[in-house]
Amino acid sequence: MRRWIATVTVAVAAATTAPALVAPAHAQAAPKRPVIASEREQARALPKEARAVLKRRYARASATEAVAALKRQFVAGRGVKATETITTRHTDGGNTFTFPLRAAGAYMFGASGVAASDFTYGDLGMRAITTRNASYTSGDVYEGTLPAGKTWLRWPDADGLPSPVVNVLEPSTLKGLLATTEKQRRGGKIDGVSTTLRTGSITVRKLYAASPSLRRLLVEKPQGATGDLVIDWKLWQDGRQRTRKLVSSYTESTQSLQGSWRTEVTATSVFRAWGTKITIKAPAAGSVLDGEDWQPEEPLPAMPDLRTPLPGRDR
């Protein structure tokens, strides 16, 4: 600013003291500076094929940076708090049933990823702890069915517990998801933090190839209509490319001689307090009963279906 003022002052002084000079008639006005188009405008001017190449390159670069940011969070004893909601809307003929399942808790990281989790399912009155080797469940849902002194059931894995089909805490899944980005824009604020919103869609077949957890859940490689099923997603990330929110959804429809049905599944995960200290331990051994040894004496009430809604499960 000071340099500009000084220049103007000198110019005014020169104009008032120097003799006037008359420009020759053939003199031309000074050429204007070339207007430099923004990167976005330059991209829009490219042929469609070239724009597609740039889009893929940008998506790959964003995915690489986001995966690196996620891996930096993998510090033993640290983790992230989360709330998860899975809503299943099932229409069978003229009847529609909606099953919301809400959970709140935290994930604890190890050097290579999630090492344990601890979630409470308020709608079910149940708590679930998972470690690398087992999962444990406890709560009102088991009231009166456990031996004296036992408050937890142990299961060989966590695959029977509900969780979103898209697991963005897996680096390979996050990378595969971001590779299918279709749009990007400002995402507003989540918990007071500014975010970038990316949206896209991925087939179950591609997600299966990228996600270790989905491969465990589905067991067999998805074929036909199940593999082609499209999962739409929205991902909010902060300035450090940490995931703040994920919404994924898909719809399945089937029609046969027995009738028709339609299932819509929407999963929403919100993450906060990245890097906070998290301690999750398996319950005390004396309070645990192996699930295979669980033999309730009284007839069980209707137990909730805790399985993760999966594409093609009921086909």
Could you please describe the fold and organization of this structure?
The longest helix has 24 residues, at 48-71. A twelve-stranded mixed sheet has the order 7-8-9-10-11-1-2-3-4-5-6-12. It is globular. The chain has seven helices and twelve strands. Strand 1 and strand 2 (95-110) form a beta hairpin. It has one domain (57-293): outer membrane lipoprotein receptor (LolB), chain A (Clam), CATH 2.50.20.20. It has helices at 2-17, 39-45, 48-71, 171-178, 204-210, 212-218, 224-228, and strands at 78-92, 95-110, 113-121, 126-130, 135-139, 152-155, 181-190, 193-203, 230-237, 243-256, 259-277, 288-290. The chain is α+β, with helices and mostly antiparallel strands and 315 residues long.
Series of H and E elements: HHHEEEEEEHEEHHHEEEE
CATH class category name:
Mainly Beta
Biggest sheet strand order reads 7-8-9-10-11-1-2-3-4-5-6-12
Q: Which topology does CATH recognise?
A: outer membrane lipoprotein receptor (LolB), chain A
Percentage of residues assigned to helices? 10-25%
Poorly predicted residue ranges: 1-28
Alpha-beta classification: alpha+beta
Gross morphology is globular
